[in-house]
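Protocol step 4 of 6: structure prediction from sequence.
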Amino acid sequence: MCRLLVAGLLLWSLAAAAEIPLAERRSGAAMMGPDLRAMQEDDSANPAGLWLLDGAALWSRRLGEAGQSCADCHGDVTTSMAGVAARYPVVDLAGGPPMDLEQRINLCRTTRQQAPALALESRDLLALTGLVARQSRGLAIAIDDGPAAQPFIAAGRALFLRRQGQLNLSCAQCHDDNWGRHLGGAVIPQGHPTGYPLYRLEWQGLGSLQRRLRNCMTGMRAEPYAYGSAEAVLLELYLRWRARGMPMDAPAVRP
């Protein structure tokens, strides 16, 4: 990890120069056909709505030794969580590692509710994450890139540029260099995570950004990062910073 941070710092000053120009960025939704966009934008047709209903029930459910619900601390999710997901992952100003939204929800469960953490990628955690993310729809992604965050963002960028796996590919080769082209009949997107967690037709279910990253790494014939690992969160942080200023459309629909 320390070596990765050092390498990332060396790349930080060059980061902005190699990015897709801000004016040329396009979300995955902008590269879909009209039918899928209509499904995403209609709450009655978006399949992720089933998870949001579960998330609303979990938000109000008192549990754990503390007998507390999310609502007991935060109140109405539509107001208290507005814009929250747009800021995650966040970096601890005291120098700790980045924390993504799923980890934050689990921290609240274990410390505030005194309840067991939810399994990463479980239906309940996706439901709560999707509910919180829904309250940021239409708001700009606003990752803090102050001095405390810069080494971690740069470390995530180093992972984005690292060639991996039997195919010796990097994330950047697809999503920076070849976006808009086709791979296996599908359009290669720019890789901006504006809609996670999202409903993917391929999965027939809701999934996190880390699930999608693991899919990509499997396609590269590389060893996927474990859910919640330092590498996965660093890459998630960089990708969200890379999409800074773009509006969120979570929970999105994708092919």
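Step 5 (inspection) to follow. DSSP finds eleven helices and seven strands in the chain.
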